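User: Protein folding is very new to me. Would you mind checking the protein record under this note? It all follows right here:
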Amino acid sequence: MPRLSRAERRRLRKFEKAVERMEPLDRAIFLGIRVDELTYRQLADKHGMTLQQVEQHFANALFVLMQMPTEKPPDWWQFWRW
């Protein structure tokens, strides 16, 4: 596996922090879909819920990801202000 650049590592860490902020069940559903590549039906059976509940938990997880802060300038930029 090729080495990640500093920017890629920083971006990956941001996603990791967002996933950590998710509610436990939202995180389990999100990781089940995106990492384990399980279907909604498989997750519904695994967690004893309906397909609609799986969809809602996945939507909650995506909402957390959408809340991620946008890229900010590097810290050195403030030293150049006058």
Remarks:
- The domain at 6-70 is CATH 1.10.10.10 (Arc Repressor Mutant, subunit A).
- The chain is about 60% helix and 0% strand.
- The longest helix spans residues 6-21.
